[in-house]
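Running co-folding for N-hydroxy-L-asparagine.
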Amino acid sequence: MKRRKFLKKSSIGTAGVFSTPLIASCQETSKDSSLLNDDTKITRPIVVCTWNFHNATAKAWEILSSGGNALDAIEQGVMIEEADTKNQTVGVGGRPDRDGNVTLDACIMDKDSNCGAVLCMQNISHPISVARKVMEETPHVMLAGKGAEQFAYEQGFEKTNLLTEQSKKEWLDWKKTSKYETIINIENHDTIGMLAIDENGDIAGGCTTSGMGYKYAGRVGDSPIIGAGLFVDNEIGGATATGVGEEVVRTVGSFLIVELMRQGKTPQEACEEGVKRIMQKNKGRKDFQIGFLAINKKGETGGYCIHPGFSYSQYTKEGQINHPAESFIKA
Ligand code: SD4
């Protein structure tokens, strides 16, 4: 049963490091949001994503700048990282679990609060597209494991070996000690969470990851959990997370940030509050990283993290930029 199609039809790189923070200024006047005053300055289209994934934001921008919708921009943008074998935290080439199986998590959310997710799915290189199919072609929000994989084949996705030689070699090395450690900013944190606003002012978001390297078989983090790794409310904005997913789930981080923006906080203030909430719960524990990224309906953005090192990539009419995010713990 194509629930959502039945209910409604949705509307229709450069390599290099950019280090100068930018206050995006491609400003227009809002036409359609009841929450914005007529004279509110807004930035649109705009796309942001966790980390310096400039090829991903460039792809999303290609779609947004030619009048495409935010949902398509999100899907095609994050697919760039899913296909990049050098990114060992997303898609093909992702680090396997402790048994040597690469299992992928992803979710997507649109302007009408429709959402879809796949959890712990093997052998499919683009989980974001399967998540979108779950959203558009089924009456469900989440499909997990074998069921998700089987659904993907039914939808025409091909079976793909996700374990690259490099990731296999590293896993075999890890097996010698089998010691699980979170190495801040480096080993485990390159998940892509992306948020976009299109020319119509509609917001969508997506998040995709292979999760924590060498995790327990069956482990699922925050990234495919709507409200934790990603949340979008078309009236307010969106948020997404990267880092140790267990901590993001405990505070329902992305939903929290969107709710804080609803209460009047800027994206930056909301991300800071989200990180502070996690630090309060952890009472002095500091050996993990979380990065939050948020955007509001006006196209203002913010990012904040526990340890220095997190940044986010942004693309607007002004061009592409990487914003280093401020951190709770200073260098
Ligand atoms: C997870 N949040 O599975 C993800 C991992 C991550 O960059 O963000 N890696 O917990």
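Result summary
The two ends are 53 Å apart (CA to CA).
The chain has two domains: 1-31, 44-327.
Job closed.
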